[in-house]
Write a structure and sequence with these properties.
mainly alpha; about 375 residues
C-alpha cells in the first residue's frame, strides 16, 4: 500500500507558520519584534560611529595641521586673550595700510631675486610674469610643496620657462630659498654680537647653510643625502627629481647671479624686518629695538622651517613671542605682533595671491604645446 501522506503537495500549515514568522513582505525577521524607537536609536548610533571614524581619519591625515592649530590656540591662552585683544585694539588703520605695503614690497623683491636666478638659466621672461607667479603661489602656501607651485605657474605663462625641465626650475627655487634665509640670518648678526648665546645660534645657522651648500655641490655628499631622503617614506617621491636637480643647481652658482640675488634678498629682508618692527610698535611695544626684531624673525623662520608643520603655524608665533618676552616685551604685545605679522605676510598675501591667480587663469591663453595636446585629445574623442 502507498502512504498518500508523503505524496501530497507542500504542507499548507507549515507554509502558513513560516509566513507568519517572517511577517509582511519587506520586513526583517531579525528586527520584527524591535520597537520603532529602538531601531531608530540603533541607526543613529551607527551614523555617529561612522562620523566619529571619519573625524579620526581626518585628524590622522592632517595631524600636523591640527597640532599647529592647537599650538596657536595654546599660545593665545598662555599670553592671556585679554592682553592680546588690548594690544590689537591699539592698531590704527594707517598702520595696517603701511604693513600691507611692506608685505607687498618684501615679496616683490623676493620675486626679483628669483628672476635674477632664472636669468642665470637663460629664462627670458617678463618681470611681471615672475612676480605674478610668486604672488599667485602664496594662495597655496598651506599645500605640501607649495614653493614648487610657482614653478608650475611660471611654466604655464612663459614659453621660455616652459622649455626648462622641472628640475631646473626647482633648482632655481631651492637657491632662492637658501639665499633668502642666509640674508635673513645675516640680519641677525648685529644682535648676536652682544651675547654668547645669540652668537652661537647665528654661527650654528650659518654653519648649517654652509653644510647644505657643500652637500649640493659635492657629489658624494649629495648621494649620501639622497639615500637619507629616500629612507623617509613621505620624501621618497622626490628622490628621482632630486637626482637631476644637482647639476642644474651647480650651474647657477655664478658670481654675477649670486650678487644680484643677494642684493634683492637683502632688500626683501629689510622690508620683512620692518613689517615685524611696525607690528610691534603698533601694538604698543615701542621699546623693541631693530636688531632684536631682526634676530627674532631670523630664528623664528628657521624653527618654523624645521618644524615640518605647514608654514610653521604656531611654531613661528611661539618662537617670536618667547624671544621678545626674553628682552622685556609684554607677552600679549609680543604675541599680537607675531600674529599681525603672520596675518599680513601669509593671510593678506595669500588672499591677494588668490585674486591674482584667478585673474591669471581667466586670461591665460594656452601655449602651443598645450593647444596641440588639446587637439590630440579632441581628435581621439571624435
Amino acid at each position: 500500500m502507498v502512504d498518500h501522506r508523503h505524496t501530497r503537495g507542500p504542507d499548507l500549515a507549515q507554509i502558513s507558520a513560516v509566513a507568519t514568522a517572517q511577517g509582511p513582505p519587506g520586513t526583517d525577521p531579525q528586527v520584527r519584534d524591535v520597537p520603532d524607537g529602538s531601531l531608530h536609536q540603533r541607526m543613529t548610533a551607527s551614523a555617529l560611529v561612522r562620523a566619529g571614524e571619519a573625524v579620526i581619519r581626518n585628524f590622522q591625515k592632517n595631524l600636523l595641521v591640527w597640532l599647529a592649530v592647537f599650538g596657536l590656540a595654546a599660545l593665545i591662552v598662555v599670553v592671556d586673550p585679554r592682553q592680546l585683544l588690548a594690544a590689537v585694539d591699539r592698531v590704527h588703520a594707517g598702520t595696517l595700510i603701511l604693513m600691507a605695503i611692506l608685505a607687498i614690497l618684501s615679496l616683490t623683491l623676493r620675486s626679483l631675486a628669483w628672476q635674477a636666478i632664472l636669468r642665470g638659466q637663460d629664462v627670458k621672461t617678463k618681470t611681471f610674469k615672475v612676480v605674478r607667479a610668486e604672488f599667485a603661489a602664496q594662495a597655496m602656501i598651506l599645500m605640501p610643496a607649495a614653493d614648487l607651485a610657482r614653478a608650475t605657474l611660471l611654466r604655464r605663462s612663459s614659453r621660455s620657462a616652459a622649455h626648462k625641465t622641472p628640475s631646473e626650475i626647482a633648482a632655481s627655487i631651492v637657491l632662492d630659498e637658501i639665499c633668502f634665509l642666509v640674508a635673513l640670518t645675516l640680519a641677525a648678526v648685529p644682535q648676536a654680537i652682544g651675547g654668547v648665546g645669540p652668537s652661537l645660534a647665528v654661527l650654528a645657522i650659518l654653519a648649517g647653510f654652509s653644510l647644505l651648500f657643500a652637500m649640493l655641490i659635492y657629489e658624494p655628499a649629495y648621494a649620501v643625502g639622497l639615500r637619507l631622503v629616500s629612507a623617509v617614506r613621505p620624501f621618497r617621491r622626490w628622490t628621482s627629481g632630486l637626482r637631476s636637480m644637482r647639476l642644474a643647481f651647480v650651474k647657477l652658482l655664478r658670481a654675477r647671479t649670486l650678487a644680484h640675488v643677494a642684493f634683492f634678498d637683502l632688500c626683501a629682508v629689510v622690508f620683512a624686518v620692518a613689517l615685524l618692527y611696525v607690528a610691534l610698535h603698533a601694538v604698543g611695544a615701542s621699546t623693541a629695538a631693530l636688531p632684536t626684531v631682526a634676530f627674532a624673525l631670523a630664528i623664528a623662520n628657521l624653527t618654523a622651517g624645521l618644524s615640518l608643520v605647514p608654514i610653521g603655524l604656531g611654531v613661528f608665533e611661539g618662537t617670536i613671542t618667547l624671544l621678545l618676552v626674553g628682552v622685556g616685551i609684554a607677552p600679549g604685545e609680543a604675541a599680537a605682533a607675531a600674529l599681525l605679522y603672520r596675518g599680513f605676510n601669509d593671510g593678506f598675501m595669500g588672499g591677494l595671491g588668490a585674486i591674482i591667480a584667478l585673474e591669471a587663469r581667466r586670461r591665460r591663453k594656452p601655449l602651443p604645446a598645450e593647444r596641440l595636446s588639446a587637439d590630440a585629445h579632441g581628435g581621439l574623442g571624435r
